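Ops channel
N.P.: pipeline sanity check, posting one input/output pair.
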């Protein structure tokens, strides 16, 4: 939620004012919001994101995340990612921040990408080599899907990162796809008030 995230980011800034832009992590773990309070504070037009049976909630500082990802090199086919990529910590379903190697990997043709500079996609691979996939950062926030092989103590699977709700680019939830209720109705998260997002980023 925006209210919670502003308070948390303010605490990070006051802790080290001179180093806030370089030392504050762009993503931090947090307790799962109270659902009733969350709904009462959300805009009337906002739609809930995926609600798995369990997951990891995190706050994102969008500007800080974009600044970190701006340093990501372009993906080099056939070259080991760990030899040149930057490291970004992503929220993991297990409740930890997972360090990942990240490189920019566009999915749009250059001409189309030039029309939508706020849409960026990246290849991501966990430092332990067990998970790999893509993350995407747009004006609407951070999303991602990585496939993780089973380790000694886990079962692996599809590791998802989704926005907590539409219209909120500062809150995400990481979860295993298997923990999402398959019987729940699919909900379109296209905003009925898109101008609210556009105006915020102008």
């Amino acid at each position: 939620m925006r209210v919670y995230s502003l308070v948390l980011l303010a605490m990070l800034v006051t802790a080290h004012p001179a180093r806030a832009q370089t030392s504050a992590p762009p993503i931090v773990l947090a307790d799962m919001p109270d659902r009733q309070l969350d709904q009462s504070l959300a805009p009337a037009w906002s739609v809930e994101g995926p609600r798995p049976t369990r997951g990891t909630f995190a706050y994102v500082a969008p500007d800080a995340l974009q600044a970190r990802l701006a340093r990501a090199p372009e993906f080099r086919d056939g070259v080991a990612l760990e030899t040149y990529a930057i490291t970004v910590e992503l929220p993991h379903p297990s409740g930890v921040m997972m360090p990942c190697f990240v490189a920019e990997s566009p999915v749009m043709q250059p001409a189309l990408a030039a029309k939508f500079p706020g849409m960026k996609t990246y290849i991501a691979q966990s430092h332990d080599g067990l998970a790999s996939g893509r993350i995407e950062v747009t004006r609407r926030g951070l999303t991602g899907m990585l496939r993780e092989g089973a380790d000694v103590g886990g079962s692996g699977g599809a590791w998802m990162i989704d926005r907590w709700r539409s219209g909120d680019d500062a809150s995400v939830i990481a979860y295993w796809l298997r923990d999402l209720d398959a019987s729940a109705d699919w909900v379109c998260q296209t905003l009925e008030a898109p101008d609210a997002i556009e105006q915020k980023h102008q």
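N.P.: looks fine end to end. Residues 56 and 174 are 5 Å apart (CA to CA).
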